[in-house]
Amino acid sequence: MARRKKIYEGKAKTLFEGPEPGTIVQYFKDDATAFNAEKRDVIEGKGVLNNMLSEYFMNGLTQIGVPNHFIRRLNMREQLVKACEIVPLEVIVRNFAAGSMAKRLGIEEGTALPRPIVEYCFKDDALGDPLVTEEHIAAFGWASQQDMDDILSLALRVNDFLSGVMFGVGIKLVDFKIEIGRVYEGDYQRLIVADEISPDSCRLWDIETGQKLDKDVFRRDLGSLTDAYSEVARRLGVMPKGATPMKPTLIN
Ligand code: TMP
Description:
Layout: E1 6-9, E2 13-17, E3 23-28, E4 31-34, E5 39-42, H1 46-63, E6 70-73, E7 78-82, E8 85-86, E9 89-96, H2 99-105, E10 112-122, E11 131-132, H3 134-139, H4 145-167, E12 171-185, E13 188-194, E14 202-206, H5 216-219, H6 225-236
Antiparallel strand pairs: 1-2, 2-3, 3-7, 4-5, 6-7, 8-12, 9-10, 9-12, 10-11, 12-13, 12-14
The structure holds thymidine-5'-phosphate (TMP).
Thymidine-5'-phosphate binds near residues 100, 101, 201, 202 and 203.
C-alpha cells in the first residue's frame, strides 16, 4: 500500500496530500497545547470531536454562502479540504472581553463589547503570534487592502453565524479565531475560511451558568476537556446523547 505524503504537521492537526490535485487530507490529533506549546497533553477523543464539530460549522457556513475549505469528512479523524495558501494571520473576533484582550486592556472577563472587535495576529510560533495592525499587514505584504476588506467581511459573517448557532443551544460565543486561505481559480484568487472551527479556537460559555466549554478548560485546568467538547457536540446534535468519542460505533 502506498504511503501518503505528509505535507505539514502542526500542533493539533497533520496535513497529508489529498487523493486529487488541489485537495488535502486534514487529520485531527488528540494533542492539546496552550501558551505556545509550553503546556501540552494528549486528550483522548479531542481529535474526533474537533473533526466532527469543524465539519458541522463549515457545512453550515457553506449552506449560508460563506466560502470555506471543507469538502467532506472521510472518517472519524480526517476530512478532505481544499488546498489553499494560508494567509499568515490569526483573525480573532471578540464579542465579550476575555483572554489576552481582557488582560492587555484591564477589562473584566465577560464584559460585553460595544461592537465586535476584530484583531489580527501574525502567525509565527517562534514569536508567539504577536498582535499586529493593518499597517504591519500592508507594509509587510501579508495581505492587500482588498484582501483585508474580504477578510473582515468573512470574519463578521462567521461571527454572526456562529453566535446564532451557539445561542440556539444556550451557549455564548465570547470570541473565536479563524484562519483564511487563498485559492486560485484561473487568473483570479479568492479568500476562504480554512483551518478549523472548533472549541479549540473559540471561547464558549454556557449562557445560564457561565461554565466554560472550550479550550480554556485545558489552559486553566478546569476539568475534563472531552466532557466540555462532548457537551457542545451533544447540544448541537453532532453526537447523539450518551455517545462518547471513544465509542465510534455510536456516532452517526
Ligand atoms: P486570546 O484571548 O488568547 O488572544 O484568544 C482569542 C481567541 O483565539 C480565543 O477564542 C482562543 C483563540 N486562539 C486560538 O485559536 N489559537 C491561539 O493560538 C490563541 C492564542 C488563541
